[in-house]
Design a protein that fits this description.
Oligomer: single chain
Shape: globular
CATH class of one domain: Mainly Alpha
Structural class: mainly alpha
CATH topology of one domain: Farnesyl Diphosphate Synthase
Helix content: 55-70%
Order of helices and strands: HEEHHHHHHHHHHHHHHHHHHHHHHHH
Number of helices: 25
């Protein structure tokens, strides 16, 4: 098919299709659909038109008027540019944190079997309060040692102690130890159902509900537990007792909205600190550590955001190219915070936020603005990866290419030696695969072709931003992400595959209505409804089932990978899956930062916790 090169000549087909890809897919499969060389791009139909004069070819004096849908502005703008952080306060906070750490560390000393149960529950509190990273080595060592006697620890629990058994299950699974769900059989009666005496144990029921979300694909008892506990927790919320225990009620509401294992660690910490403070038996020293730690992190985040905003202002893309992309700063940094929240990853968070911003610009260059020949020339320039390659590009694409090129050069600064050049090589490879995926999707748009759901997934795998972002996530971590990590990524493990599929499905459910309104018919829901002759509602239900299955696969593959991949590598992978739940389970939280995402960002970067 002859490539269409003029804007006016393809405007009649721009309603036909667009395959969304954002951050979402990977696979253990090859990419046969990418073998042919393509020269097409994707376009959207606008609801609100923004008219721009642009030249389709830098050597062509004929200009065309391009219409595109401007994205809604960010709620935050350049808010953090004027933010100020008192370094003296940060130093003082850190001194207080360091003074409290030895006291907590002493509480984690290996003891006899009876104390192992108590210490495991204490670790759960540390994790929930967001301070466990201070004691990571001690926690890992303790759990590894006592896991050999895990059966004795469970036996030591009282027969009806649902709370403690559930907490033990959660902690060991969280740290990569397979603990059988058969330990919950003790809470079933002779009829095979969970005992009625559990109904009034609200704390135990909540902990059991949280434990059920660590289930794998073959653990039916945890499926039963999820239904059982959800039912009774919802009944509690509408009953009289909820009024008498407001802080527990709030924690239950939060868990039913997004359980801890699917939530971002830093958001869990903010919620749990408030809960823990209202517990009558809370440890004052531990509460103080949690608050000091959280406030220190908040000040660090504000500094990071100021650095990110300064970079963006100096980059000044809004004056160099049409603003067809989403101008976001707080939102991509929120994503980066979700991937690694600890203070030692400050530079990595900033770098990842920049990477997310760049990916969005490239995405919208294909989706919204570029002509077919233009984006083809961009892909060719990326293939050559030469700063001189920009000569053949239109002016606005020169800016896009140089921004991409410069960001990768900045990433190279984190590569300490030639021996670690494999990290950048992997990132370059994933960037090129991303571009080829875009071109394949463009052919569908040009032909008005609605692919099968299987085709859709396969090409989505190839055009994933997830592979690129994972590479960009690990590079700033330096030697902590060694050659073995990249060999693991190259093998396309089932864990990352499940992650990207889950993210893709979450995005499809959240965005398909807006896409259909714009005329973008080539989306996952539409492909599925046409192929399987089902309604949109039925397709969404099926996608939700697939999403839940992928979450179980991730749980399962995490336990397998934890035997040979460090936890500090696996956690960012899991956190990308958590981002999918936080940002897309209840709508498109990146494009349209609704009340919940707004509240999250405010609670982390605006409203400082009171000490």
């Amino acid at each position: 098919m002859e490539a269409i090169t003029k804007y006016g000549s393809y405007s009649n087909v721009r309603f036909l299709s667009r395959l969304c890809w954002r951050l979402n897919l990977s696979s253990s499969y090859h990419y046969p659909l990418l073998k042919s060389s393509l020269s097409f791009s994707r376009f959207q139909s606008p609801k609100k038109l923004c008219l721009v004069r642009a030249t389709t070819n830098p050597t062509d004096d004929n200009s065309t008027t391009r219409s595109f849908t401007p994205h809604p502005p960010s709620l935050w703008g350049h808010h953090f540019l004027s933010a100020s952080v008192n370094q003296t306060e940060m130093d003082d906070l850190w001194r207080q944190i360091e003074a409290l750490k030895p006291i907590v560390n002493a509480m984690l000393l290996p003891c006899n079997g009876a104390d192992a149960k108590k210490i495991t529950c204490f670790i759960h509190t540390l994790v929930s309060l967001g301070v466990s990273y201070h004691f990571e080595e001690k926690i890992v060592e303790f759990l590894k040692d006592v896991f050999e006697n895990i059966e004795d620890i469970i036996i030591d629990c009282k027969e009806d102690d649902l709370y403690t058994v559930s907490v033990i299950f959660r902690v060991f699974r969280l740290y990569g130890h397979y603990i059988t769900p058969d330990i919950f059989n003790r809470f079933k009666g002779d009829d095979g159902n969970f005992k009625k005496c559990l109904n009034d144990d609200v704390r135990g029921m909540l902990s059991f509900y949280e434990a059920s979300h660590f289930g794998t694909t073959t653990e039916d008892i945890l499926e039963e537990a999820m239904s059982f506990t959800q039912k009774h927790l919802e009944l509690f919320l509408v009953g009289e007792k909820a009024k008498h225990y407001p802080h527990i009620t709030k924690l239950i509401q939060a868990a039913l909205y997004i359980p801890q294992n699917f939530n971002l660690e830093i958001l869990v910490a903010r919620e749990y600190i408030d809960f823990y403070e209202l517990e009558t038996d809370h440890n004052e020293m531990l509460l103080k550590l949690a608050k000091l730690n959280f406030r220190f992190l908040q000040l660090q985040y504000i500094q990071d955001l100021k650095t990110l905003t300064t970079w963006w202002k100096e980059l000044d893309l809004v004056s160099k190219i049409p603003v067809y992309f989403r101008e976001r700063l707080a939102e991509p940094y929120f994503w980066a915070t979700g991937i690694y929240y600890e203070p030692q990853y400050s530079a990595a968070r900033i770098m990842l936020a920049k990477s997310i911003i760049l990916v969005d610009i490239v995405d919208n260059t294909f989706d919204v603005y570029g002509t077919i020949d233009e984006v083809k020339s961009l892909v060719q320039a990326i293939e050559r990866w030469d700063s001189d390659a920009v000569d053949v590009l239109p002016d606005y694409l020169k800016v896009v290419f140089r921004t991409t090129f410069d960001l990768f050069k900045e990433l190279e600064e984190y590569v300490s030696s030639e021996a670690r050049s494999f990290t950048m090589q992997y990132a370059y490879e994933q960037l090129r695969i991303l571009m080829k995926g875009y071109l394949q999707e463009a052919e569908w748009s040009n032909r008005g072709h609605l692919p099968s759901h299987e085709e859709y997934i396969e090409v989505g795998v190839a055009s994933t931003a997830g592979e690129v972002l994972l590479a960009m996530t690990f590079i700033p971590m330096g030697d902590a992400a060694g050659v073995g990590v990249y060999e693991w990524l190259r093998s396309r493990p089932k864990l990352t595959h499940a992650l990207f599929v889950k993210s893709r499905l979450r995005d499809d459910i959240a965005t398909y209505k807006e896409e259909m309104k714009r005329g973008d018919v080539c989306n996952g829901i539409n492909c599925y409804t046409k192929q399987h002759k089902v309604s949109e509602e039925e397709a969404c239900i099926e996608f939700e089932k697939k999403t839940n299955h992928m979450s179980k696969v991730m749980n399962e593959e995490f336990l397998k990978a934890a035997k040979f991949i460090p936890l500090h590598i696996l956690r960012p992978v899991l956190n990308y899956g958590r981002l999918a739940d936080v940002c897309y389970k209840y709508g498109d939280g990146y494009t349209f930062a609704g009340e919940k995402i707004k509240d999250y960002i405010t609670s982390l970067y605006v409203d400082l916790i009171t000490l």
